[in-house]
Amino acid sequence: MQSINGYQYPTEQDAINAREACDAYYGIPVSPNDVTQNWVDYQFAELNTPKFWYIVYDDSLLPVLGEPIEFEVITKSPIIN
Amino acid sequence: MIGKFPKVRPRVYGPGFIGILDTYANAAVAYSVRKLRAAYTGSAIRVRRSSDNAEQDIGFTGTGDLNETALTTFVGAGNGFVTTWYDQSGNGNNATQTTASNQPQIVSSGSVINVNSKPSLQFDGSDDFLTLSNISTNITYSGFQVVKRKSTSTISVTLAGSSISDSYLLWNFSDNNAYFRSSQGYITQSLNTTTQQLFTSININSGNMSMYNNASLLLSNTPISLPGTNVMNAIGRRNANYSEGNTQEIIVYSSNESSNRTGIESNINSYYAIY
After folding, report:
1. The complex's ipTM?
2. pTM of the model
């Protein structure tokens, strides 16, 4: 279990919409030939019930996505080898 | 002078640039902050600057160093992030990151991020990584990497697969052991370093794996059996685990370079002055 500070979405489309809002805010991509296509990416909490999608907070997201929340994500056991 | 032509002396160039891949050729992939091959005409990296998110390719100086003047001129007083680490092997397997927040950093507040006076890609340990096409190695391969782990509690991973069961060249985390895993299994040995290091990983199909730290043998042994896949397609990430530290060079050969190992390591150390 890992505590995440970020943004939680019940569907993948909601997460895509949030990602696109960040892209629009920061003007990504700047040019059609740019490698950078997204400002931020979302992740899938596949082990949680119900499953959900989320974006981890950083300061650049505050003006676009607002105040983050704390939630728990079930993660796999740490890898050893 | 019918029937005769004046002798034309071939133009003789000076000593010229000779890269490590000119001496030790046929790498499968090769990423670096220095030029590795005389015939390579591409750039070293492509960089996104924080001021307006514009991108630009950054190449080399005449002596084969990263063109830091071009880099800092482009980035200005802000930060610079690597969107592409170009493959200098000739195989075109460039390592890229299309998400801004996941890009490793190379300029901080207008200054190039150096390790031991050479530029480095800095991975943040939370989400930074670069992806590439799975390198087409044989079961036998050799990897040479210049890396620096941030602290003994953080992860250092160089070239690895995205799945837990995939291979990797170096996995060093808070248990302070170095691991090297192939589809044959893995070997491990204590390695508790946070200084810049040259890590060498050689996997031989006959069932032997070897790893070296700064040209000194850490372990050479038959691997501990662990079913896995011969997949390596990311720099700085293994599954959901991310490297925190710096990387300056990764060269992989699809061959057993044991006979060239000391020469390759000497070449790398001559440039980076690691040990």
Report:
1. 0.91
2. 0.93
